[in-house]
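[audit] Reproducing an earlier prediction to check determinism. Same input, same settings, fresh worker. If the tokens differ from the archived copy the diff job will pick it up downstream; this log only records the rerun itself.
[audit] input (478 residues):
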Amino acid sequence: MSGYPDLHLYINGDWRKAAGDLPVLNPATEEEIGRLPHAGKGDLDDALAAAEQGFRVWRRTAPVERANVMIKAAALMRERREEIAAAITAEHGKPLAQARLEVIRGCEFFEWDAGEATRTYGRVIPSAQGIRYIVHHQPIGTVAAFSPWNFPMSQPSRKVAGAIASGCSIILKAAEETPAGALHIARAFHDAGLPPGVLNLVFGTPSEISEHLIRQDQVRLVAFTGSTAVGRHLTTLAARHMTPVLMELGGHAPVIVCEDTDVQAAAVSGAVRKMRNAGQVCTSPTRFFVHERIFDEYTATFVQRAAATVVGNGVDPGVEMGPLANERRPEALTALVEDARDKGAEIRTGGGRLGDKGYFFEPTVLANVPDHARVMQEEPFGPLAIVNPVASLDEGIARANSVPYGLAAYGFTNRADYVDRMVEGIEAGNLSINTLEASLPETPFGGVKHSGHGREGGAEGLHNYMIVKNVSHSIGID
């Protein structure tokens, strides 16, 4: 595709190619749009050495100076929004309008954390005469970060923003399927004057890179967004070296729709949000538990809106949903639909691939899905919604909590007592009532149970990137 960037590794302030490379494909056309260099052991060792030196410089840089570089880089990315968005649509498939919004969201992460960089306050603890106890927050060191393919710009932005704002250096391993967003981040920081070695960008075989980086003494934090299975593996690797982790893992978000809500509005918003990014969102609303009194009306409206979703190439006007990001996803969704159907679920719309070119899948709604179907326990990570009736709010909460995940959850109600019961009862790191927005730069984001550990964003967003040092100072009294 015209305008897709020439892909490089970024190490110690320099752009470089590598010995091996693999194709990057457009998921709407299956055509090759770029060649991605894969880092070898020598490249990774160079990145480690660069990050160690970069950390020595950056940790001594005043927080306000760090913030200024971040603000300048974000401004450059805003200026380059069209170029970045076009590259994201080419490699990921999402509609161009959604890609533009993702670029802005990534910039907002940098802008928020730039402000937080100047507010990493310590405190003085009251003590006896002649002694002072002072708590300092200091950068943890070099971060090995791993970002996924579903949001090529905003997901790496979270990791880079947290590390750089805190005074850390970072080696980012971005997704091989969607490398352009991370490349543009590195380019903006390079142009904004970030010292060499503070940010390093590599691509390659995920298992080889993670196993090489995580076992190095220079790496003081492992930050990962992705599946629970991979998160467990990386956590195990890190534990062998007593390296702390920041894990934002999979979800299987429930939506509880109470009988008092605006049925039509809740159904339309649910269907629209479910198909955003082709459902490839860790917070995507998926398991809809609808009060039995309004179940038929809600489901009919939901199905009608989902079926009306305009699917196509993300560069075409009016497209609401693009293809899935890679060839593995349609196969995985087909298997889940077939399993659910065989176990008694009703396919209300969709259920299969679209066309014979590209990785397109129909917007799909399953109803009355039994609990023993795989899709009730496994995150589909695609444009697939489950709508099941419940007899009460208590049943809805119990079924919402029935999976080992707890990243995001949603509720629709106008009753204050129902809100209180959801807040107290739902097991999730993020609960949204009468809205399907789960994450903003100014709010903490992360999961419970198998959905991860730690938080990104908000005032809590820099905590994982810093250590707490207590200083006891005896002054001496004559």
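[audit] rerun output stored. Observation attached for the diff report: Residues 9-249+451-470 form a domain with the Aldehyde Dehydrogenase; Chain A, domain 1 fold (CATH 3.40.605.10).
[audit] end
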